[in-house]
Amino acid sequence: MKPVNLVAAVVVVVVVAGASAGSARAEGVAGVYGVQGAGVASERGCDGCGARIDSGLAGDARIGLRGTATVGGGVSAIVALEAGLQPDHGRADQSGLLFGRQAYVGLTSRSGTISIGRQHNLGYLALTEVGDPFKGGNPGNGGNPIISSRRQVDTSINVYSREVHGVSAGASYGTGARAENGAGNRAWGVSIGFEQGPLTIRAAHQNRNAAPVAPATPMGNNLDAKNAIVAANLRVGSATAYAAYSATRGWGSSPLFNPDNPYSASMASTPSTDSRDVLVGLALPCGATTLLASYVRKNDRNVSNRDTNQIAFGASHTLSRRTDFYASYSRITNRNDAGNPGLRGAGSSTLNLGLRHGF
Which among 184, 234, 321, 327 has the fewest CB atoms less than 10 Å away? Predict the structure, then answer.
């Protein structure tokens, strides 16, 4: 079956299920959720760096709608619409998309879940959910040097199995947006996870085939990307140790915030297109305060040898089950102008303080 026909078939199934859910509306559950936060950040090492008020410092600020409804036979319909926000300006994140973080509908049962829409890629989820003590937030998060292709995949079908004896698996296929020249932007991924007692391990591979880019990229190159990652964490007493190893290849494996001047520096920098990345980290609860630390080494295997080292320290102080104060400091050192991801793609060091609330 052709991919387009497969997508159409799944859409029909989900729509029919959604229509059936109308008769079970009284049994459905719907709600609003989100995370909002803002604080003060101070950056150093770039033109225009300094102190400023910013949002989403400890993780993407967001608001979402989600719901479930029983459709019979142990199957439920699910839907989620999640928008990224910038509370300091009230603007939408993710380049202004209405529901830029996630937008999907699907079916779930005891056997697993199938969903279709705009969804996080499996490599990004493995890093943030399993291998990164900062969980994808704060300037010191592992996603700065270790960029697992793009965070979201458009028009994707994701399938997740249920956990059996601690083992679970996932797969995704996305047709992507179609470029003006007719070339596709396809992506597929697979993941497998294991959780037993204090140990959690997840491996994921993401492959993206994109249209050629011009004129900035050398002739014959395109935005194809291959990202593989193995992430793990281990609870030892009250502490949790984290580790991740990633292999990335292709021009699209390390996308830039701005291809013309990605790091807000005086001169544009070229990211690594072939690297091996290692992350180690620690989370240590001390009463209401959790101390965080991580170190990331990006080994660029290109001739240019643009290696990157990032070290980060942070703390989160819990005020309630959903509210906390946070602080973090991160510093990136580079070889041969590797670029400085920093807070918003700028600066070599960042210090931030802020308040976060989930609902």
Answer: 321
CB within 8 Å of 224: residues ≥ 6 apart: 208, 209, 210, 250, 251, 252
CA distance 303 to 274: 10
Q: What pLDDT, on a 0 to 100 scale, did the predictor assign at position 47?
A: 67
- pLDDT tens per residue across span 18-56: 444 444 444 566 799 888 888 888 888 766 677 777 776
Contact predicate 48/265, CB 8 Å: no
pLDDT in tens, 287-340: 999 999 999 988 888 766 777 888 999 999 999 999 999 999 988 887 655 444
Residue 212 pLDDT level (bands cut at 50, 70, 90): low
For residues 346 and 155, the answer to whether their CB atoms sit within 8 Å is no
User: Per-residue pLDDT tens for 215-252?
Assistant: 454 444 556 778 899 999 999 999 999 999 998 887 65
Residues in the chain: 359
Give a three-class secondary structure readout of the chain: CCHHHHHHHHHHHHHHHHHHHHHHHHHCEEEEEEEEEEEEEEEECCCCCCEEEEECCCCCCEEEEEEEEEEECCEEEEEEEEEEEECCCCEECHHHCCCCCEEEEEEEECCEEEEEEEEECHHHHHHHHHHCCCCCCCCCCCCCCCCCCCCEEEEEEEEEECCECCEEEEEEEECCCCCCCCCCCEEEEEEEEEEECCEEEEEEEEEEECCECCCCCCCCCECCEEEEEEEEEEEECCEEEEEEEEEEECCCCCCCCCCCCCCCCCCCCCCCCEEEEEEEEEEEEECCEEEEEEEEEEEECCCCCCCEEEEEEEEEEECCCCEEEEEEEEEEEECCCCCCCECCCECCEEEEEEEEEEC
